[in-house]
Amino acid sequence: MSHGHMDTTSPVAIDAIRQLRINLYEHLDEVEGHATKTTRWTEEDVETARRLIPDLVTVIRGIISLHEQGPSASCRTCGATWPCQAFEMVHRLVKDPDGEIVRLLTRARESTAGR
Ligand SMILES: [Zn+2]
Fold first, then answer.
1. Is pTM beyond 0.70 here?
2. Domain that includes residue 19, residue range
């Protein structure tokens, strides 16, 4: 696997890649905006959120699977020493003690333990 720089990339391709990035960020901003703009959620909003969570978990799983340790001691996608930056970032965000993922798990575990 080669990890060299793409020195041959044309300005057109560079611009297309830049647009792709901007488009993805705008896409995420738009979704976030929809989720936070309304003060009251309808029953439909709740159902959408319920279906959205597994989709988001799938996205996170996809990123993690790309950045697992390869046959050597390095990341199978980045080639960087494992854990690579991408894996560490996802790990940090998913395990953020102030984040809702950790809060949800803590609540769920506490309620199970109380039974
Ligand atoms: Zn990686």
1. yes
2. 8-37
